[in-house]
Design goal:
833 residues; alpha+beta; Neuraminidase; nine-stranded mixed beta sheet; five-stranded antiparallel beta sheet; 36 strands; 23% strand
């Protein structure tokens, strides 16, 4: 085992006798300018280097990337090094960053710090390999991270690249580790084994007192929270054996659609006395959520114009009160952008569920009284691919098709004609199915609502319902059970296949669709603890979550509908129970914002929200997961750019302060002088001191890669452009000197990383087609994110290879970049040390 000092003794001996004699035949590409700094050591970790699992890269698609098959089954790639620490014994800790470059594709990339031992190739020899000796994994078993993480519901709570984008690392005097994150940006503090010790520390916005500097991926903003919630519930489902990814189902007015006309007035400008802040409609980004692996099925859309707009936006499905209009929109939409409408239909002329999900909301409540068999019939008549419906649980624990905890007087009447008003309406959970469906004393739910002008209860339009109800001795507008709904759909298929409707013009389409139609079944349960107008606690109006979930799931299983029926809810407790107890059933997570106003007399107040908090506490609907209600870019604008948070982070020589450096300028900065900010953070007090330094980018630079200090005032910064494989690109290391508060640092070019002398052929041999090797070595990588100070004449540099994406070295072969660790001897020693 070599001590670091021994390694550098050998490196210095090698560099003392360097010569220029290198065969030009070995050179693939040599810059014309003369390089004065010299390569004295190099070690390479092959791109396809892996550590133990779990499976990673599942959101990278199914096609190979630069020759690499994805995903990586039962293993994690050892890649993306963005920080390095010297252990002083010939080994180094190297920190992997967030994984695959985005919050959307990195939920299965575990955040790790690997211990490596390089065997540098020098003039005197050496294998040039890098051994991986183990790793620590960042984890949060004490729940110090206050927002939803991918592994939210596990005991160890391992952190992933969808939780934090760590880009820098330092070790404090007490042995604990500090990480700089880009998503917040945050400082993350762990013990020496990676266990999180305290809540992530945000960056105050000193230009706007009272605010934080936030990026678009900040988890304390609504815009960045949906993906995190969905990652958490997907991970929970998988941990219980589910192979079905949960579905994301948002209210359509909350989509990031670029259309200000879809913004509901009382959300944009809440009524006086409501107690609510203005909302932002730009919350749910369809592309982002789909890229994270989730179907986006939005509700409730009732105009053809809006349906077509959302199809163009890329939603995976639409839930509508008007199945007739949704069918028309599907026929008109050019899904393939080839000039031919109707691309969402299959060879049979039915909606292809793999391409789009057309759902009839409560059957077709814009055309028939909701959640009734006639409503389901009209949805089937319009060939919806899914019947969406609600359920309540009766006194005898039977799922009943019902939207409200009460049998609503506004929608139902008593069969015997007796008065039935809101004053005497009953709870579903207090009635047996026999009581609800009794032909004489039960309920008939055929009341037409004034706000739905196209509704009709004309039974001449519901022949299948009439025939089915007659076979059971029931009224057509009875409140059906879930079992009866399944039976009705089977009856409907036979009616058009072999029964009375077999000669109807669309009979074949109808029975074929009915035989495969899906069911989206909602558990109508409310966890709020306050009291409703009838004096009943909202959470007491229905059965408990587990009883509810079990009752619905059992009917699905009994009818062998595991592949045709989903369970959806605004109350995520029921969905987690389904995932745990019945993992074969897919779950659908409903997101909405029906405000509960401070003054209940303000029209529009609704107890059914699942994002709003309750009495100042976090929302009770999301099973304990945090939602930053109405904290958006309106209230705290995104001043840090996407991927513009903490990239480099130095530790002062005395070990008392951290100096995190933003990767890109804050929004609102002068674009003519791109300037990054260095902030000073006091480790003992856990506070930013307010001291800042300015780092002005070179005219060729787009961002920085790393930042370290090697004495009280001097440090090193990697600066680069966005090129790769380009020997005319800009990749450099600057020596900097800190000046006064808010003053630009003094910069001096220390190393040109595309022009390093290699007279001893240390970078040889190479793969045919490689660039930047030979008499001169170049580091032509898109990301170079690790710099290490050994002494004033020797600097270490590593690239972040962005596996499997970046191809900066192996341009000819197209192979992904390796992790390269080089040692450079400077022609001119660094300044004061």
């Amino acid at each position: 085992m070599f001590e670091t000092g021994q390694v550098f003794h050998k490196l210095r001996r090698a560099s003392a006798s360097l010569c220029i004699g290198v065969s030009l035949g070995l050179v693939m590409a040599v810059p014309a300018s003369y390089a004065s700094d010299t390569l004295v050591g190099r070690a390479v970790l092959p791109a396809a280097t892996f550590a133990e699992g779990p499976t990673s890269g599942q959101q990278l698609g199914a096609d190979p990337i630069n020759g690499q098959s994805v995903p990586f089954i039962n293993k994690q790639p050892v890649q993306g090094f963005s920080a390095i620490r010297d252990n002083g014994d010939g080994t180094f800790w190297v920190m992997a960053d967030n994984g695959y470059g985005a919050i959307e594709n990195s939920a299965d990339f575990n955040l790790r710090v690997y211990k490596i031992r390089p065997h540098f190739k020098t003039k005197e020899g050496g294998s040039g390999r890098i051994d991986v000796k183990g790793f620590i994994e960042l984890h949060d078993p004490d729940n110090n991270v206050p927002f939803a993480i991918t592994n939210e519901f596990t005991r160890r709570r391992v952190l992933t690249g969808a939780d934090f984008d760590i880009e820098s690392m330092q070790k404090a005097k007490d042995g604990t580790l500090w990480f700089g994150d880009e998503f917040g940006p945050f400082l993350l503090h762990t013990d020496a084994k990676g266990k999180v010790l305290e809540a992530p520390i945000p960056l105050p916005d000193f230009d706007n007192p009272g605010r934080e500097v936030r990026s678009p991926q900040n988890p304390f903003s609504e815009e960045a929270t949906a993906v995190r919630i969905m990652n958490a519930v997907r991970s929970h489902a998988k941990s219980h054996g589910s192979t079905k990814t949960p579905v994301f189902s948002p209210w359509e007015v909350m989509l990031d659609d670029g259309n200000p006309n879809t913004f509901i007035d009382n959300r944009k400008e809440p009524p006086t006395g409501s107690g609510l802040k203005p909302a932002s409609s730009e919350i749910f980004n369809v592309t982002s959520i789909k890229n994270a692996g989730y179907l986006v099925v939005t509700w409730t859309v009732n105009t053809k114009e809006r349906m077509l707009e959302l199809m163009k936006l890329g939603v995976s499905g639409i839930i509508s009160d008007r199945p007739d209009l949704l069918r028309e929109a599907l026929k008109e939409f050019d899904a393939n952008n080839d000039g031919n409408p109707g691309g969402y239909f299959d060879a049979d002329g039915l909606v292809d569920i793999k391409k789009f999900d057309a759902q009839g909301h409560r059957g077709g409540r814009g055309l028939r009284p909701e959640n009734t068999l006639p409503a389901m019939e009209v949805a089937l008549d319009n060939l919806m691919s899914t019947l969406e419906t609600d359920t309540g649980i009766s006194a005898d624990l039977v799922p009943v098709i019902d939207h409200d905890p009460h049998i609503e007087a506004a929608k139902c009447r008593l069969a015997n004609g007796a008065p039935y008003t809101t004053a005497n309406q009953v709870l579903v959970k207090n009635q047996t199915v026999a009581q609800i469906q009794n032909p004489s004393t039960g309920f008939i739910c055929d009341v037409l609502l004034p706000d739905r002008p196209d509704q009709t209860n004309n039974l001449l339009l519901s022949p299948v319902t009439e025939a089915f109800a007659a076979s059971l001795g029931l009224r057509p507008y009875v409140k059906p059970t879930l079992q009866q709904l399944f039976d009705f759909v089977a009856f409907y298929a036979n009616y058009y296949k072999t029964g009375a409707g077999k000669n109807y013009a669309e009979a074949t389409l109808r029975w074929k669709n009915a035989e495969r139609v899906r069911f989206n079944i909602e558990t109508k349960i409310n966890p709020r603890g306050d009291i409703d107008p009838q004096g009943i606690k909202f959470s007491d109006r229905t059965v408990d979550p587990e009883t509810f979930a079990r009752a619905v799931a059992r009917v699905i299983i009994k009818n062998a509908m595991l592949d045709r029926a989903d369970i959806q809810s605004f109350d995520f407790r029921t969905l987690l129970i389904v995932q745990q107890k019945f993992p074969q059933i897919r779950t659908v997570y409903l997101f909405g914002d029906f405000p509960v106003y401070a003054d209940p007399n303000i029209p529009g107040s609704d107890d059914g929200t699942n994002l709003q908090d309750e009495d100042g506490e976090n929302t009770p609907w999301l099973a304990g997961m945090f939602w930053p209600y109405r904290s958006t870019k309106l209230s705290n604008p995104f001043r840090a750019q996407r991927s513009g948070g903490f990239e480099g982070m130095a530790l002062t020589k005395d070990g008392k302060k951290l100096l995190p450096l933003l990767e890109q300028p804050l929004t609102g900065s002068d674009p003519k002088t791109p300037t990054l900010l260095i902030h000073e953070f006091d480790i003992e007090s856990r506070e930013y001191t307010g001291q800042r330094y300015r780092y002005v980018l070179d005219s060729r630079g787009t961002n920085i890669g790393d930042f370290i200090m090697y004495d009280d005032k001097h440090g090193l910064v990697i600066e680069r452009d966005g090129s790769q494989g380009d020997l005319n690109g800009f990749k450099a290391i600057y020596q900097i000197e800190l000046n006064g508060h808010d003053q630009p640092v003094k910069k001096t070019l220390a190393i040109d990383l595309v022009n390093i002398q290699d007279p001893n052929g240390i970078s040889q041999p190479t793969v045919p087609g490689d660039v930047g090797t030979g008499a001169n070595l170049a580091f032509p990588f898109t990301t170079i994110e690790d710099v290490l100070f050994f002494d004033t004449k020797h600097i270490g540099v590593l690239n972040d290879n962005n596996f499997p994406f970046s191809v900066g070295r192996h341009v000819g072969s197209g192979k992904p970049d390796d992790n390269e660790f080089i040692i450079i001897e400077l022609d001119t020693a660094l300044g004061k040390n």
